[in-house]
Amino acid sequence: MGSFIQLVIDGLSAGSIYGALALAIVLVNQATGMINFAQGGLAVLSAYIAWQLTQFGLPLILAIVASIAVSFVIGAVVERYLIRKFEGGDSDTAVVVTIGLLTLITGVCAWIWTYNNTLFPSLFPLDTVTVAGAVISVRSLGTILVVLVIMGLLQALFRGTKLGLALRAVSISPQSAAYSGMHVGRLLMVGWGLAAALGAVAGALVAPALTLTPGMMDTALVYALAAVIIGGLSSPIGAVVAAWMIGVLENLAAVYVPFIGHDLKIAVPFLLIFFILIIRPQGLFGRKAVVRV
Fold it and tell me: What is the pLDDT of residue 206?
């Protein structure tokens, strides 16, 4: 029983990391209607900024807050001067642009900080607690709690604030939103800025567990995209729940399903995607698109 609980908690912790990045992807999609493949690169860049600030003597919490603020500005600038040139055109072109941006950011991080593994200080104590025979790290519990808080804030943003409703309106129909008097360009910048800031939080959660490298978010990005597809592009709650499902089922399958083991556990999220797309194409918590004719 203790081993089972250990696997579940570890899966929830890993799923929370995927969920934090998935929330940023959902935020960009809700604000612009795009899938941002560069989100992992922006998270890595923000983590490096936070680490560099700690090297200058800034306390960790202040360094993370500063990196979140800087990331917001970077996200807004990227939208204004790069992404906006491709918005409203071919969606495939915009996706390719975000992939190119991911490659560029990774290269810049490697050029400045090299590919060497860098130790990133943990935001939470490295202590452990024992529950029913399972040894659970405080960092895992802290990561889960942070993602829960972010999920709740995003859900409240999109459902209960004027800003969130405006972001959703712009993503559905920028032209109609502009006719209603909304500042579409400004809202798009805010959406990208918020997503980049959220990515900074994800980077601060991932870096202590994986060590800081330019490519540390590559695998997490794949899992985050899987979580978004399974949970639904329109649902922050769905993205996090799906990320938790992936983390837990992957851990359990690796131990309790012999033919999968640790070598094939990466296939678990893709099997989930396959079944979910057949049963519910819009995702577990997604909304069906309604087209008026």
Answer: 84
